Amino acid sequence: MGTIIGILLAVLAIDSHGMSLRRGKASVQKSGQAVSSGTRAPAPQPSKPAALPIVAQPAPQPAAPPRSPASTDPKGPEDRGIRDMGCNDRDREDPSKPCKNGGSVGISPSAPKPTPTPQPSPPAQTPTPLPQAVPASCARFNPDLARELPLGPNDGSEAEYRRMRDQALVLDDSELNSVLMRNGIGSCRLVHARPHCPHCFCDYYFQTRAGTWHGSGGWPLNPYSRASTGCVSEIQWGGYLPSMATGDLMKNAAEQARHALCHPADPCRLHPRNLGVPIHNSDVLGQ
Fold first, then answer.
1. What angle do CA 113, 119, 125 make, to 5 degrees?
2. Fewer C-beta neighbours within 10 Å, C or N terminus of the chain?
3. What pTM, to 2 d.p., does this model score?
C-alpha cells in the first residue's frame, strides 16, 4: 500500500514539473515577441483581392471526330455540295435556296457550255466592178457613161490600170494588132486561125475569155446568145458595131480590141484588183 502511494506521488510530481516547464517556455516566447515588437514594426499584411463574380463556364464539348471519306460518310459530299451552291445547314429546308430549288446535292453547279454558233462561209470571190465611167477616147463606145474623174493621191491601182489601158488605146491599128498577136494585152489576144485551123470560118479571132460559147471567150458578146467566138470578119454579128464589120479585117480586129479595153467590166483583166479573177459573160452584159 505504501508502495502504491509512493508511485502516485512520484507521478504527480513529474506531471507538475512538466507543466512548469511548459509555462516557462510560453513565457519565454511571449517575452521574445515583446522584445522583437519593440525593435521592428510589424510588416503590413497584403490586402485580400476583391472577389470576382463567378461566371459559369460552358462545359467543354468533346472534339468532333474527323470526317471520313465521302465513300463512308454520306453527309460529306452533301455538305460540300450545299456549300458550293451558297447554302448552309439552315438552308436545307428553305425551298427558295438553290440547294432545294434545282440544285443537285453533292455536285457543284457548273456554268452551261456555250453552243458554238456556226460561222457563215465566206462568199465566193467575184470580180469587183469598176466605176461606171470611161475616158474621152472611149466615149464613142459608151455614150451613156460619164467621164472618168481625176485620180487622187491614194489611187495607185486605178492609176496603173488607166496607164496600161491608155497606152494600148493610143496605138494605131497595125501596132495594136501586133501587140495583141505577139504578147497580148492582159487576157486579150488576137489569134490567127490559118494554117492551124483550116476548117475555121474566120481567119482571125479576138478573144478575152469572157464568153462561154464552146469556151472560145470571144469579144464582143452577143446579147441574145450571151456568147461569142470573136470572129474578125465583114459580117456584123450580134453585139458587133458597124466599125467592126468593114472590109478591112485589121481595122475590125483593132476596133474589137478597143471596145474591150473601154468596157467598164474590164474584160481584158488589166486592173490589179481583177488579176486572176475569172469573168463571165453575165458580168459583162449585166444580166
1. 165
2. N
3. 0.53
